[in-house]
Amino acid sequence: MVKASIKLGHPTFVFARPLTPQSTINKINLHKEFQSSGVTIIQGELKEHEKIVAILRQVDIVISVLPFPQVLDQIHIIEAIKVASNIKDGELPNKMVEVARTKRRGCGSSEFACKISCKLREYYKEYPQKRFLPSEFGVEEDRLSFLPPFEACLEKKRKIRRAVEASGIPYTYVSANCFGAYFLNYLLRPHEQHEDVTIYGSGEAKAPFTYEEDIANYTIRVANDPRTCNKMVIYKMQKNILSQIELISLWEKKTGKYFKKVHVPEEELVKLTETLPFPDNVRASVLHSVFVKGDLVNYELGENDLEASSLYPDYKYTTVDQLLDVFLVDPPKPALATF
After folding, report:
1. 262-306 pLDDT, tens per residue?
2. How does pLDDT run across 93-126, given as a tens digit for each residue?
3. Structural domain boundaries of the chain?
4. Residue by residue, what is the 3-state secondary structure of the chain?
5. pLDDT tens, 231-258?
6. Predicted local confidence at residue 106, as pLDDT
7. CATH number of the domain at 45-85+111-329, out of 3.40.50.850, 3.30.300.30, 3.30.460.10, 3.90.25.10?
8. pTM of the full predicted structure?
9. Which residue has the higher pLDDT, 301 or 146?
């Protein structure tokens, strides 16, 4: 997110946990890299209310990227935004209204969309859009329901959404669905030598994948876009909606290998959500929802929903096919989500 913000020319502040003698070399180097890029880093804790308020009075947009265990701690950010009082709805400038009302003449819809997108970007810099983006970036929790372990996690995110709405703070919710590199790494295990792959359920349910760098680049655009204020933006690019079977077939063609398919039946996965300890039961519940039930593609976008690739047709997102080419050369290290 920070790199994308800098790349798109935005003065950027980072409120981060303090560096300590126990801080990793990676964390220290990341701070140095950000500072050398012109990022203002303020070290502190979420309970330092006055410090956060002072920072918020210097910015227009707040993007929370807190990890899941701290989702409910975003209440501290909401309370600080309310006190700072500078992040609130404002009227769109007349020029922006003129652009929004422009009628299409003599060009195709995609060409028209590109022209409008370019015009809007010019105005974003001139008229900053006030906004709070809570730490979302996963599934669209307000219209889906899941098995109890995953549902309990998402209920915490729903509480933050309701608190934001009750506060009157302008917001944008981002549903990025499956982090591309993370999930492809988990499913295909490119970092190790193996003869088999695990398939959850039949393997035919589809899921939308979004490369992490694209999530960041889309999100910075979304945060500055007047069209997305008080809206849900969903990252669901058509080229990146694949089933496990399609994904494995694509990987086999690229690697020249054939993998033995080991299926985990739905009933077995459901049982694991009931018997595994936390947080493993959450992971099993996620796998059931995404790759057995296909929940992330089992709903239509509503009239108040926006889709990222349609909003920004000029942005060339990374396809799953392209991401797998990267995996062939430099596979990512294994990782597990923090619950």
Report:
1. 999 999 999 999 999 999 999 999 999 999 999 999 988 887 789
2. 444 445 444 444 445 556 665 665 566 555 545 5
3. 1-44, 45-85+111-329
4. CHHHHHHCCCCCEEEECCCCCCCCHHHHHHHHHHHHCCCEEEECCCCCHHHHHHHHCCCCEEECCCCHHHHHHHHHHHHHHHHHCCCCCCCCCHHHHHHHCCCCCCCCHHHHHHHHHHHHHHHHHHCCCCEEECCCCCCCCCCCCCCHHHHHHHHHHHHHHHHHHHHCCCEEEEECCEEHHHHHHHHHCCCCCCCEEEEECCCCCEEEEECHHHHHHHHHHHHCCHHHCCEEEECCCHHHEEEHHHHHHHHHHHHCCCCEEEEECHHHHHHHHHHCCCCHHHHHHHHHHHHHCCHHHCCCCCCCEEEHHHHCCCCCCCCHHHHHHHHHHCCCCCCCCCC
5. 999 999 999 999 999 999 999 999 999 9
6. 46
7. 3.90.25.10
8. 0.87
9. 146
pLDDT at 336: 84
- Tokens at residue 109, please? 């819809």
157 is catalytic: yes
pLDDT at 170: 95
Q: What is the pLDDT of residue 60?
A: 93
List 157, 206, 236, 293, catalytic entry: 157
Residue 186, Cβ neighbours under 10 Å: how many? 17
